Amino acid sequence: MKKLNKNFKNLADDYLFAEIAKRVEAYKNEFPGADVISLGVGDVTQPLSLKVVDACKAAAMDMSTKTGFHGYGPYDGYPFVKSAIVDYYKRFGVDINADEVFVNDGAKNGIGNFLDLFDPEVTVMIPDPVYPAYVDANVIAGHKIVYVNATKENGFAAMPPKRCTADIIYICSPNNPTGTAYTVEQLKVWVDYALENDALIIYDAAYEAFIDGRSAAHSIFEVTGARDCAVEVCSLSKTAGFTGVRCGWITIPMASPLNRMWLKRQSIKFNGTSYIVQRMAESALRGGYDDVKKSVAVYKSNAKLIMKKFDALGIEYTGGVHAPYIWFNCGIDSWEFFDYLLKKARIVCTPGSGFGKNGNGWIRLTAFNTPERTEEAVKRFEPFWKEFIDVRDKLFTNL
Ligand SMILES: *Cc1c(COP(=O)(O)O)cnc(C)c1O
User: Which whole-number Å values give the CA distances from 210 to 39, 96, 161, 213, 338, in the listed order?
Assistant: First the structure.
């Protein structure tokens, strides 16, 4: 075939989670029946709220009646779910308008598709380390990428570099993989910077529901000035266990030309999120929200188990408080540590280097397993870590 998109050649060889699956598979083939615990992949495990499932059943029944049947819906989502989202934002004092909310089938798609609105010549600024989809979507689009460093020195909360060459700035808070979340004050620095440099912030709040109280920002729109320079991407995937259900949204202020452009784009390339799923989303944000909070609490208590052990062992880490991720320093090549942890403790982690070059020497653990399995993993971790510290200098190259 002629004239394929050459940018695909610039994508990293193997998707991070494919490589992890390959290594785990090889291990299981070598040691059949080994009791492997995964604190690796970032997928939820708690089942859906019964209230959300009831909403699903009721919506399915609607579809069986003449009056309740729904065909193509609005490109930007039904008013009932948009108003539930608007009300949800009121919880943290953010006023948005229903016309600013565009319902879609998830944040990853939203993030990737949004690039349709920009000139191919744009430069994007992406934190390192971060959720790999930002980089990959921009590689496919052939955009120029500059990185902003999140490191131990700045507590993995990257702040603006002096000179701005970027047209688009990605911010992920709470951050996947480091679990760090920006305060309103820190975000204000980013917003002022974007305004000064006429840049757009794409703010990914996929883990908003994990934020502890008001100690971090729940939305970029808590920040004065953000309405003039930001859009916000969110999703029910991690909030309400919707990774297999698929529902998210993008909030784009009315005053931005992107608002009308996105509606146009969606009307051309998207025919809306399913009616049934939107009814489920409505329930997750309204009647089912208490159940949703309970599932989030399970993950947060898993994170606490890990944090407590890490505190006791003196392991350097971030995260766990505002996110289902704990990000810790292993001091050696991330993939070497991955193999050693799998071999010695039968625990699967995610190598930090898969999220950017600053991630090397760091490891992401997720709090998404069950409480029982997390507890078992924590139990295994203590003797493992003591032994690892003993042999680290002998067996591995310290970074
Ligand atoms: C999981 C995740 C998403 C993807 O969400 P979907 O709605 O399931 O597509 C987006 N952003 C971050 C940072 C994530 O970790």
Answer: 18, 21, 28, 9, 26
Q: Return d(Cα 341, Cα 349) in angstroms, integer.
A: 8
Shortest-distance atom of ligand 1 to CA 106: 7
* pLDDT classification of 1: cutoffs 50, 70, 90: confident
| Cα–ligand 1 centroid distance for 51 (angstroms) | 23
State the pLDDT confidence band at 55, using cuts at 50, 70 and 90.
Answer: very high
Mean pLDDT of 174-179: 98
By most ligand atoms within 8 Å of CB, the mutation choice from 175, 237, 247, 327 for ligand 1 is 237
The C-alpha atoms of residue 218 and residue 92 are separated, in whole angstroms, by: 7
pLDDT digits (tens, 9 = 90+) for 99-145: 999 999 999 999 999 999 999 999 999 999 999 999 999 999 999 99
How many A from CA of 207 to the centre of ligand 1?
8
Task: Pinpoint the alpha helices (H) of 91-228.
Answer: 107-113, 133-140, 184-197
Cα distance between residue 31 and residue 53, in whole Å: 39
Distance between Cα 302 and ligand 1 center (Å)? 20
User: What's the pTM value of the predicted model, to 2 decimals?
Assistant: 0.97
Structure tokens at 175: 């951050």
Residue 317: the pLDDT is 98
Q: Ligand 1 atom 5: the closest Cα is on which residue?
A: 107
Ligand 1 contacts CB of residue 42 (under 6 A): yes
